[in-house]
Amino acid sequence: MGSHSSHWIPGQYAADESVAGAQAVLLPGWQPALFYLLALDLPNRQQEAREGEDHYGVAGESRPGNRRDVAGLEVLRESVIAMIEVSVIIPAFNEEKYVGACLTSILAQTHPAYEVIVVDDGSTDQTAEIVQSFDNVTLLRQRHAGPALARNLGAEHAQGRILVFVDADQTFSPTFLEKLVQPIVEGRAIGTNSKEEYVANLDNVWARCWNINENVTLGRIIPEDYPDEMPIFRAILRSEFLKVGGYDDTGSGDDRTVSDKLGLMAQAAPGAVFYHSHPTSLKEVFYQARWKAKGQHGPKTFMKTMQHTLPWSLKGSVKRALRYRNPYFPLFLIVYDFGILIGSIEHLLRPRFHWK
Fold it and tell me: Please, how many CA atoms are within 13 Å of residue 61, restricted to the half-sphere of its CB?
C-alpha cells in the first residue's frame, strides 16, 4: 500500500459553468511541476514528436531533444499520478464469496492506494473475518443500512484527496487506479468512471442469463457506444463529494445521487479495466432483482410492473432463449421477474426499507 506523502497535495478543484465541457480551474495548492506538466500539453508534444512538426528540424523528422523532452514529461506525469493520495472505499454485505479476490486485486495496483477501507454493512457471513486477514486494510462496521450509508461512512474516515468507490464483487486490472484517477490528476475532471467494465463470471449460466437480460453485448456491462459522460462517479475529489453530503439513501440507484446533486457527470477514463460478477444462482438472481425494484431502478408505473408478471415473462423469454441458444433463460426470467414484483410490492408498502 502506498505511503503517505504530504508533499504532493492536490489543491481544491473549482468548477464553473464551463465544466460541462470538461473545463477545469485549479486553485492554488498544486505543485509547480504539475503546472508545468499541464502547461506543456503533453499530448500535443507527443503528436509533434511523432509527426516531426518542429520548426527547428526537417519536415517529417523529430529533433532528438524534443523526443527526450516528451519522454521526461511522461515520467513526470507518472510520478505525479503515483503520489496523489487515493482512498478506496468498498461497501460489503455478505460478500464472503468475492471480497478476497476484490482486495487481492486492489492491493496489486501500479498506483497503490493510500488506504483501502471496507465497510461491513451488517454482514452475517464471514465477510469481516476475510477482510481482517488482509494487512493494510481498514475495516469499519455498521448495522445493516445499505451501500449508500456504508460508502458515506467510509468517506468520513478517508484521508485521501481522491475517493474511489468500488464494489466487493469486482476485480481490477493492475492499472485500474492509475488510469481511473489520471483525468482528475491532470485537472480535466472532478471525477471519473470507466466504460471498460466486463462480466467476471460469464461461464456461469445464471450470470450469462443476467447479461442477456441487460441487453448489452455479451460479456460487457456497459455498452460500447455509451457516452463519455456518465452518471455514476467511480472516482471523485473528496472535497466535491463532501460538498453535497455524499450519497442519498435511495436504494438501488443511490450511486447516481452524487452526480444529480453536483449537476455534473463523471468523465470516462480510458484504459481503466475492471470486472463485475453477476448473480450465480437463482436465489441470488431473485434477491438482486428484488433489491433493484425497491430502489430507483424499479418499475415506475402499474403497466411497467405488469410486464414482470408470469405471462409477460414467458412471452419475453422464449424469443431471447432461441436467439442466444440458452435454454435456461426462461427459468431465469421467471425468477427475475418474480423478484421485481416482490420488490415493487415491498417498495409500495415500506418505501424506506430498500436495502438488501
Answer: 7
Percentage of the chain with pLDDT > 70?
Answer: 72
Encode pLDDT of 42-98 as tens digits: 455 455 555 554 444 444 444 555 555 555 555 555 555 556 799 999 999 999 999
**132 pLDDT more than 80:** yes
Return d(Cα 3, Cα 86) in angstroms, integer: 11
Instruction: Report which of 310, 123, 281 is spatially closest to residue 204, judged by C-alpha positions.
Output: 281
What's at 336, amino acid-wise? Y
Domains of the chain, start order: 31-81 (no CATH), 84-276 (3.90.550.10), 282-349 (no CATH)
Written as one string, the DSSP assignment of 280-337 is -SHHHHHHHHHHHHTTTTS--SHHHHHTTSHHHHHHHHHHHHHHTT-TTHHHHHHHHH
Bigger pLDDT: 26 or 279? 279
Q: For the stretch 133-153, what's the b/e string if a residue is b when 16 or more beta carbons lie within 10 angstroms of its beta carbon? A: ebeebebbebeebbbbbbbbb
List pLDDT tens digits, range 306-316. 777 777 788 77
For 300, what's the count of Cα atoms within 13 Å in the CB-facing half-sphere? 2
- Rounded Cα–Cα distance for residues 23 and 18 (Å): 6
Q: What is the pTM of this model?
A: 0.77
Whether the Cβ atoms of residue 197 and residue 222 lie closer than 8 Å to each other: yes
